[in-house]
Structures are given as structure tokens and as C-alpha cells.
Amino acid sequence: MSRAADRLRMVIDHLDRSAASIRSSPTSGQTFSHSSPHKLRYSFDTGVLTPEQRLFYEENGFLLIRNLVSKADINAFRKEFERICRQEVNVPGLVVMRDVAIARSEFVPDQRAVSKLQDFQENPELFRYCALPQILKYVECFTGPNIMAMHTMLINKPPDAGKRTSRHPMHQDLHYFPFRPTDRIVCAWTAMERVNRQNGCLVVLPGTHKGTLKEHDYPDWEGGVNKMYHGVRDYDPDHPRVYVEMEKGDTVFFHPLLIHGSGMNQTQGFRKAISCHYASSDCYYIDVRGTTQENIENEVKELAEKKYGINDVAFKDTWAFRGRLVQGERTTL
Predict the structure, then answer these.
(1) Residue (of 65, 62, 114, 77) closest to 250 by Cα position
(2) What is the pLDDT, as a whole number, of residue 300?
(3) I need a labelling partner for 251 at 20 to 30 A (CA). Which of 73, 74, 190, 211 fits?
(4) Are the beta carbons of 53 and 44 closer than 8 angstroms?
């Protein structure tokens, strides 16, 4: 371990000590008042993250791990995605989304018609991603040992059709989630091929995870906005940005309050990524009525009524039935 890492380890060990174990001694006959340092808020010391990684996540709200998922697994997920697009397999509860700019006349039963698969928890092959040991060992650093897979997606960002609709507005994932505490939720997002600024990589605003949940709604974009693509109403456009360029198998973990989005795909190919949002099973549901999240609650209820004919479903129930335990015990969530 380097000297810098040794020093960081000492700092973290000090920060992770309980306040009761910290003592100050009077010097030169005078007693000074000191505020006790806080624990690292956003991660646990499980022995997986280095001191540098823990401090980076603490300050920035995201962490990129290179070459975490094998090419064999990525290729298997891609083949299953293509089978679903060809309608060769039926997946209960799966939501198939299409880019708003794709005309209905162009719909064909292959990946060109599909911009995202959502809620694939009933597909054993795709859901295998959510239980990969190498993913979960990092997830545990943020959620603790009892882990629920709450939200699954395979994104197939299409070449932009000239309307700039392949963009994803800047947003905070917590806007969609009626469970807390916030700091025990994390997203794992894995590139299924090279992801860069040309094909619409993630862009993040480092440090914004330290703020609060902001108001979200559909942005007023001339070319239209894809369904459920809400954006932050008010954020500092001059905040420094990081474009998270990745290679196949790289995985980024990020906090649900981190403001992020993605640019349009300016290439002729599709940009694929697979992701899962995890939460500690010790999390609990909240009532979002009367909060900034009420608009997404109403939209989800409308979709549930349209798709399943259910008109009295609770927002939290739409999450509870999708959640799957992937490690430890299911407690309150």
C-alpha cells in the first residue's frame, strides 16, 4: 500500500470511530472546544473499497470500477435482449419502451424498435446480472449486507433521429423511489460496449449527491421527451460536469441524489447498458403525497391502471412487487 493510501486509511479509521471514543486533552492550561468528526456517510468499510475509493465516492457520489463484468456475461445479456426484441420470449411484467421519435410505421420486431427494457426481474438470464457476486460485493459497500434489487433496466440508446430525443434529461433517480433512507440506495450501471460522448455516455455533476431531492418534471424540448424521462427543474448549469466514458464491462456505482443524464447518440449504432438499482432491505416506504414526487406517483398509477386495469394500486406496492432479495434477509422493504 502506498504512503498516500496509508495516510487515507488512518484518516478513515479516525472518521469511522464513534464520537464516544474521541477524547481531547487540555494544552497549556487552556481547554479548547472541538466538534467530533463524523463517520463516512455514504459507504461501509467492508474491505472491498480502498481508502481512496471511499473518499472519492464520499466527495463525488459515484465510483467507476473497470472491467468488472466479463465479456461472456455481457454477450449473454445482449443475446437475451435480442431474443426479447424478436418476441421469442415472453417476460411477465416487462416494460418495453420506444423512442418518441420512432414513427409507428417503423416498428419492427427487433432491437431497432426498442430503446429500453424495464423491470426484467422475471427474466432469469437478464436478472442474473443483478446477482453477480462481483457486482454485489461492491453494492454491499453502500447498502449493507441485506440487499434488494429494486429496479432493472437494459438501455438501448438509439441513433438520434434528428430530434435530439435520444438524450436523457439531467435528473436524480430518487425522484422515482418511495423508499428511504437515501444513502442506503445505489445504482450499478454497466456498459455493454464502449460508451463515450459520441454515443451518449453518462454525464454527472459531482458532489450533487450531498444536496436534497429537487423538483422534477418533463423538460420543454422541441422534439419531445420519452415517457417517464423527468428532468430536474432547477440546477446550476455551470456546475462542473464529468463525462463517464467506459469500456465494455466497466461499471459505475452512483448515489440516487447525484444529478446525472446522458447526451444524444450521434453515431449510427445503438449504445447498450444494463443496470440495477439496489436498496438495503432495511429501508422503508414513505408516503410521497404532497411532495415533489407526487407527479411521478400519479403517472405510475395511471400506467398501472392502463396496463393492468388496477385503479387503486398504491405507489409503494408497485415497487414492493418488483423488488427481489439478492443477498441476506428481507426485512422491512
Answers:
(1) 65
(2) 83
(3) 211
(4) no
